[in-house]
């Protein structure tokens, strides 16, 4: 599955806890919690992927979502802030009920020594928007994930519970620091209704965010905060009576996720994921709720929503959504989707490297196209791990960058989750950055605590010249160094040099990843609350600018697997990043896709074996631990039973 193994005892307990009630008739006016979706349209002739139907939320739909959530809040004597977005993150409504608190508090560090965004006071509207975006962005026609699902997969142990210490970290550990407000990829409200949009707080791990569906197609998300705490679920083995989650679930009535694709129908390492702790029979009869007469008001949110009225969402796949099918001139491969500028232009057309002054032979436009196409081909043959029905094809986004972190092309499958767009670019830039000769010097010039991480890495790996280009780092390797236990999950072991110590760690302070963007987040939250009139710039981190207004890490770093650097004649010339399915699938698509591109084009390929990060051995007590480079899944393809497809490459 996603990776590793989980004991059958834990897996069984989670499976039992996750079942029961989702598809039972409820008291909400006859809603069943989402019936089976209609079958998707067949793929066009010559294609292997079906294109999602052109479904969207109307302004009336948005009002109904708000009204139904507010009705449940009233029934629970609560005052909530409710946000609704479309699939690509356009904010369609933010509604504050009478008495709703304007702010919430992020949970603090376990030891009380708050750092990064731990313990911060944040605008409730920002929390609600982040939850709605999380539900929409993590979901697709093959999987419905909620912000509770996100909580389960970003913590230091998977599954998270007091009794699961010693297991590895969540498979999407670190994904919460994506879709950042400083991202150069994620669009802003001032750009017009073009997605994918940024989130004020990245992705949320706080229950209370769900996707919205129509005819089996993701059309948006709803997010709620009423309890005043922006946190996470530390124990997935019990079931919470979560106020935010109950109110948000009521908002989905009539637009529920199909039962067959909810997170609790999907397993990772044999463990059922969690979709919700509140079932539909536990919410009231909200089906007759109307926005007209609902007490409260639409509220403006700087940088996201004007507050002028209920908005309609864009239909995913249309020009207005910012994501559309590619033209034959853009990609010769069938089924490719690209990001659009709203006027028909590809935001990230395939091009050659911009770093001619830095490397001897940059990636050419022809090579860039071959890399993206070969990775796409591997994806289209691969068996998905987080999609239903079983034996679906993997669906991901693929990004390619040069050594300056400039985008050389982005391509995706028709129904890949939206979160993977920003994350695939983060992964590509991270692999490139840590593999380059420039990493240490640029970190040493950054503000705040960031320079200290260089010394920590060098001491940890016993190499005074670490991060100067001697080794090729994949995101899996960098992720090894970013966990609060090293080796990953082993209680009592030291923390990785890019992580926080476990006594101070939680998903709101991961280490270098969060330290790099702390200034951006602080500036942006000041802008949202009105304390500052200046928003964060369109580049994350305080690293040196390589070109005016641009660093090598303009949307932050990512610390879970799915990327490898690109090499030519022993020198790094860029990197490829993949996101949207299981992390082993992401690894394979990037690694094997790049290998195949090298065979096809010649001159480019994966890093030489003797400089890959899995040659780095760390002394941990009396034993030596080797970093990992990539993990490829067992029997990964639908068209062959081949095993060990990455072995020896």
TrEMBL record:
Biased composition, class Pro residues, residue ranges: 35-45
Ranges of Low complexity composition bias in the record: 20-29
SUPFAM superfamilies, per the entry: GlcG-like
Stored Gene3D superfamilies: Haem-degrading domain
Membrane-crossing segments per the record: none
Stretches the record annotates as Disordered: 20-46
Entry-linked PANTHER family: PROTEIN GLCG, SLR1406 PROTEIN
Record's protein name: Uncharacterized conserved protein GlcG, DUF336 family
Native organism: Erythrobacter sanguineus
